[in-house]
């Protein structure tokens, strides 16, 4: 690579934006620091020290890039988005290390990036005894990562609301198309974050009305709206053993699995019909209902009734919703139910909920397009001269977009298989290797086999691999993988 090949990338704007974001992260850490002070616990020093380190690093990056060009194109957008999640995780893991609850660097990075990517996979085996500040920070990382760190930045930094802002918006948001609620990208970001905060607030109120105290309600509201899955209890939602809590969490997980642009128009504009006029939402709902019926029927027929008939249906519905939205909360260990149930949940994990939501997975819209394109191919075998486009919501999906979806699914499967093979080489069983990889790639959380509740048994090499897989899954493959291509760095 020649020296002049990389001069076209504006590295100064990349580092300057990251510096600003690190200062923002330090500001966010004030909240768990105050929580630590309120409960008078030992983690206050860890947060205070981390805040100082993070601010210094951010200010240095800003000061050393004062004379910068404001040019922000696609490559700068990809670099900012990709490196921001890494930098946030590096500095975000410091409270775990300094406090000593996760002294291993690999484990601390894994726990933090699992939070920011809303995966919810954990290496912790005694969550109940962690201090409140650490518990709050875990859930807060998920809430920040759910709607997106960059999207939050676009909402508050006017300097990024120029033409370059759309590059950042497209690089971080999920799905095959990106809806703008307002002409300016900053206005769209503000409205999406406003909706996000409103849903979280309503959920806090609903949970407090049940058996949860305010602290647990806030933490679980953040994890639920972000479809993250971190809990303040090792037993997760099962700890409360409450039908009310289960149903409230189920409803808000379902809402958080819908495209937030559609939720915005339904709630703010009163266009409730748009919710079920949208084809992706209908497919998402149908898959959820069918999977619940299949699991509940299987449990009834096999005699594995979860307390009562209502409890069995509720447990089935909870496990399906938490897996299809890639939240990862648990009220029962589905690994104990048998392989039939694991396969159904494995399938809903793969595709996830709707694009434009906080959920992970390959997204329902891609499943819809794949099925329709396959049906069209079968038709063209009988009528080779027919022109039958793929339509979603009565709109034609271009051939280029169909091709992009096919490429996405291929790369998704390729990353899945390669990572699973590497994990199996590290001593994991077939079920554990494939289950943990899917859990991290689809940003779900719980694994399979011995990793059903935590990932503590995975060696450091596997932890670093799965950390990368989580980031690749959260940014939907191409935003990360394109950086490893040689043509990305050339003119």
From TrEMBL:
Q: Which UniProt keywords apply?
A: Cell inner membrane, Cell membrane, Ion transport, Membrane, Metal-binding, Potassium, Potassium transport, Transmembrane, Transmembrane helix, Transport
InterPro entries xrefs: Cat_transpt, TrkH
Q: Per the record's keyword annotation, is Disulfide bond included, yes or no?
A: no
Q: Please list the residues that bind K(+).
A: 118-119, 228, 326-327, 443
The UniProt record lists the keyword Lyase: no
Instruction: Select a single GO molecular function from the record's annotations and give it.
Output: potassium:chloride symporter activity
Q: Where are the transmembrane segments?
A: 13-39, 45-65, 77-98, 140-160, 192-212, 247-267, 283-301, 340-362, 405-425, 463-489
Location in the cell reads: Cell inner membrane
Annotated GO CC locations = plasma membrane
How does the record classify its membrane topology?
Multi-pass membrane protein
**Family of this protein:** Belongs to the TrkH potassium transport family.
Q: What is this protein called?
A: Potassium transporter
User: What is the native source organism of this protein?
Assistant: Coprobacter secundus subsp. similis
């Amino acid at each position: 690579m020649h020296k002049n090949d990389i001069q076209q990338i504006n590295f100064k704007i990349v580092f300057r934006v990251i510096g600003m974001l690190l200062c923002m992260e330090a500001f966010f850490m004030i909240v768990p620091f105050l929580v630590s002070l309120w409960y008078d616990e030992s983690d206050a020093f860890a947060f205070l020290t981390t805040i100082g380190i993070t601010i210094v690093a951010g200010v240095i990056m800003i000061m050393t890039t004062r004379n910068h060009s404001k040019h922000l194109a696609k490559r700068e957008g990809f670099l900012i988005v990709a490196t921001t999640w890494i930098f946030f995780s590096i500095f975000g893991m410091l409270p775990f290390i300094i406090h000593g609850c996760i002294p291993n660097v690999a484990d601390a990075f894994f726990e933090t990036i699992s939070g920011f990517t809303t995966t919810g996979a954990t290496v912790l085996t005694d969550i109940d005894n962690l201090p409140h500040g650490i518990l709050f920070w875990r859930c807060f990382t998920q809430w920040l990562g759910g709607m997106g760190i960059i999207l939050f930045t676009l909402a508050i930094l006017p300097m990024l609301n120029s033409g370059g802002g759309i590059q950042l918006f497209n690089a971080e948001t999920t799905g095959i198309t990106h809806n703008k609620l307002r002409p300016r990208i900053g206005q769209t970001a503000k409205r999406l974050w406003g909706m996000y905060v409103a849903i979280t607030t309503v959920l806090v109120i609903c949970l407090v009305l049940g058996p949860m105290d305010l602290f647990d309600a806030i933490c679980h509201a953040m994890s639920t709206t972000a479809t993250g899955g971190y809990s303040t209890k090792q037993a997760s939602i099962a700890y409360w053993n409450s039908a009310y809590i289960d149903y409230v969490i189920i409803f808000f997980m379902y809402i958080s699995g819908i495209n937030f642009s559609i939720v915005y128009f339904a709630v703010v504009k009163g266009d409730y019909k748009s919710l079920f006029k949208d084809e992706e939402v209908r497919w998402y709902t149908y898959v959820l209902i069918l999977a619940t019926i299949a699991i509940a029927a299987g449990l009834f027929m096999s005699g594995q009734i979860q307390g009562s008939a209502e409890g069995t249906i509720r447990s089935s519905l909870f496990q399906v919703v938490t897996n299809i939205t890639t939240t990862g909360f648990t009220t029962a260990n589905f690994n104990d139910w048998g392989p039939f149930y694991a396969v159904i949940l494995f399938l809903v994990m793969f595709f996830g909920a709707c694009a434009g939501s906080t959920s992970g997975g390959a997204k329902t819209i891609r499943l819809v397009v794949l099925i329709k394109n396959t049906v069209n191919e079968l038709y063209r075998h009988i009528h080779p001269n027919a022109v039958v486009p793929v339509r979603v919501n009565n709109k034609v999906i271009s051939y280029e977009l169909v091709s992009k979806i096919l490429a996405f699914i291929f790369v998704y499967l390729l990353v899945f298989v390669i990572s699973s093979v590497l994990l199996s080489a590290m001593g994991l069983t077939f079920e554990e290797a494939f289950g943990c990889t899917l859990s991290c790639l689809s940003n779900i959380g719980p694994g399979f086999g011995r990793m059903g509740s935590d990932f503590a048994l995975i060696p450091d090499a596997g932890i670093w691999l799965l950390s990368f897989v989580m980031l690749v899954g959260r940014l939907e493959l191409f935003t990360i993988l394109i950086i490893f291509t040689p043509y990305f760095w050339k003119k």
